[in-house]
Design a protein that fits this description.
By secondary structure, the chain is of the alpha+beta class. It has 16 helices and seven strands. The protein has helices at residues 31-50, 66-77, 82-96, 106-131, 143-159, 161-166, 168-171, 176-209, 221-246, 251-264, 266-284, 290-369, 375-401, 413-431, 450-468, 509-519, and strands at 409-412, 435-437, 445-448, 477-483, 487-495, 523-528, 533-541. The strands form two sheets. It has a five-stranded mixed beta sheet with strand order 2-4-5-7-6. A hairpin with a 4-residue loop joins strand 6 and strand 7 (533-541). The protein is elongated and about 115 Å long.
Length: 546
């Protein structure tokens, strides 16, 4: 399953399938959708029966939990399933309530069943489209879901207005007042259903599927006390006003849940609203005058909408602040990397000229001693090879250093590891530490600046070699790469010696590596095991090979 427009758990919609020649494949359920539709048919039938306890003569149900199940399915699988969901609801209604086709043309009855589903699907599609527009200020996660929960029931109620006004003999209402009351009851029932059924269903689905690392937050003691106190005060004031003969006044409870939502987010707001709903709904089930029930549910719907949107707005503000903080960190890291890059280019420039001279002289010395077959000839040949290798490396560094700053290129991890191996093998041999490098899948690519990322990996390898160097027989340092569908992880593992060798550097290699990795959109973690093993993991997002 996917969560197409639920940015708090998954930020983007699944791409629609290309249309076939008839333009119908986009709306045809996929193989994994059929099971969800079967469960939906059963759940819709049960919840539709349950809603009868809050219905009345001439009115829609004033508590319609099936609407929440409908919206959760549309939000989870996408509005492309709107026609399939409409067909399921038509089949369930006609099977369980055959009288729905009596007294009016069957086409009108079928349209009356399908119309709310189409309104829900259109609302979810519109909000999903708007959420993709970067300029939509009110559509920061998780506001899109909150807006869908509120706007879909209103859109379904408004879609019934034309038929109610033009064909009163079919709808059973004849006066404008009855039309307004009936549509208000329709909207209230759906609002209460969407706001209290859809959120927990989506949270459970995300937790079960593992698509989001969402979990119930554990509030602090002060937060729990404040929430309970504010909610208790609001409910107590409402009861006092009712006992004073002023009737049921929603204002105190509305202010309380709005306060809780703005202070602690939508999870806390939903919990507070659950308490209010469980207090009101049982009293309004079964035998009760429809006007009184409608009045109470209108007040309840006002409280619910305000509280849930307040909580969603608070969570959206928190998400926006986190995004701004991350952007500021990336800008700061970019400035640091810009300085490091300038320094590295300057160093490469200074080293390249004398190294070129050294390579020329080494080649000349090799030519002079060729054929002697003694240690001098072997040493000259070794010097020539190493000088040429270093000259080639400097040319590569100068080539990559010439890229425009801030313009990363697709980089194969095999090339990155080869570059690091070239630099690190000599240092590891000099330190007496074996460096084991595993083969890398040649298809793995990341978007990176090669020199900077190689510097980050090199810093980790150098730290690992120095940490292992103090042992009489140091364990080897291993470098390997693993990957899943979206991430590649470069692992550097070593055994930390109890007598580490003193370092000549400033001790900032890990900090520089972390800054480079985070600027590339990755993460760097280091874990120390009880057996003395140190595991550094550098994680980077993969790019697709098309």
């Amino acid at each position: 399953m996917t969560a197409p427009f639920s940015p708090s758990f998954a930020s983007r919609p699944a791409a629609p399938e290309p249309l076939d020649t008839l333009g119908l494949r986009m709306f045809w359920p996929r193989r994994q959708d059929w099971l969800a539709l079967a469960f939906y048919a059963v759940g819709f039938a049960v919840l539709h029966r349950l809603a009868a306890y809050w219905g009345g003569s001439g009115f829609y149900s004033l508590w319609f939990p099936a609407a929440g199940l409908r919206l959760a399915l549309l939000w989870r699988l996408g509005p492309r399933l709107t026609p399939s969901i409409a067909l399921v609801e038509i089949a369930v209604d006609v099977t369980l309530t055959p009288a729905v086709l009596e007294g009016m043309p069957w086409t009108v009855a079928i349209w009356g069943i399908a119309r709310p589903v189409l309104a829900y699907g259109a609302t979810v599609a519109a909000i999903g489209w708007l959420a993709e527009r970067r300029g939509a200020a009110l559509l920061t996660a998780p506001m899109p879901l909150g807006l869908a929960l509120v706007l879909a029931p209103l859109a379904a109620a408004l879609s019934a207005v034309p038929q109610a006004l033009t064909s009163p003999e079919l709808t059973g209402v004849s006066s404008p007042r009855e039309v307004i009351v009936s549509l208000a009851a329709f909207a209230v029932g759906d609002l209460l259903g969407t706001l209290f059924i859809a959120p927990p269903l989506l949270w459970i689905a995300d937790a079960v599927s593992g698509r989001a690392r969402w979990r119930w937050p554990l509030p602090s003691l002060l937060a729990a006390v404040e929430t309970a106190g504010v909610l208790g005060l609001g409910i107590g004031l409402a009861r006092l006003l009712d006992q004073a003969g002023l009737g049921m006044q929603p204002a105190p409870v509305l202010v309380a849940v709005a306060w809780i939502g703005l202070r602690f987010g939508r999870a806390a707001a939903w919990g507070a609203l659950l308490v209010v709903v469980l207090r009101v709904l049982p009293d309004t089930a079964g035998a009760m005058d429809t006007p009184e029930r409608l009045q109470r549910h209108l007040a309840l719907a006002t409280i619910v909408v305000t509280g849930y949107l307040a909580g969603s707005f608070a969570d959206a503000q928190a998400t926006a602040r986190a995004m701004l903080e991350r952007r500021d960190r990336l800008l700061f890291q970019a400035e640091r990397l810009k300085t490091l890059r300038a320094m590295s280019v300057a160093v490469i420039h200074e080293v390249s000229q004398p190294l070129s001279t050294l390579a020329i002289e080494a080649r000349h010395l090799h030519q002079l001693t060729a054929g002697r077959g003694d240690e001098i000839a072997d040493g000259a040949a070794l010097i020539d090879r190493k000088a040429e290798h270093l000259a080639t490396l400097i040319r590569r560094l100068r080539r990559f250093g010439g890229h425009a700053e801030g313009a990363p290129q697709p980089l194969a991890l095999t090339a990155l590891v080869d570059m690091v191996a070239t630099l690190a093998q000599a240092e590891a041999r000099e330190a007496g530490v074996a460096l084991i490098i595993s083969p890398v899948d040649p298809t793995l690519q990341v978007m990176a600046q090669e020199v900077e990322l190689a510097q980050a990996v090199m810093n980790l390898v150098r730290n690992a070699v120095q940490a292992a160097q103090g042992d009489a027989a140091p364990d080897p340092v291993t470098l390997d790469v693993t990957a899943d569908e979206t991430q590649a992880v470069i692992h550097v593992v070593n055994h930390a010696s109890a007598r580490p060798v003193a370092r000549d550097g400033m001790g900032i290699g890990t900090h520089v590596a972390r800054a480079i990795v985070e600027a590339h959109g990755g993460t760097l973690t280091r874990m120390h095991g009880p057996d003395g093993m140190v595991h550094a993991a550098l994680s980077l997002p993969l790019i697709e090979i098309r």
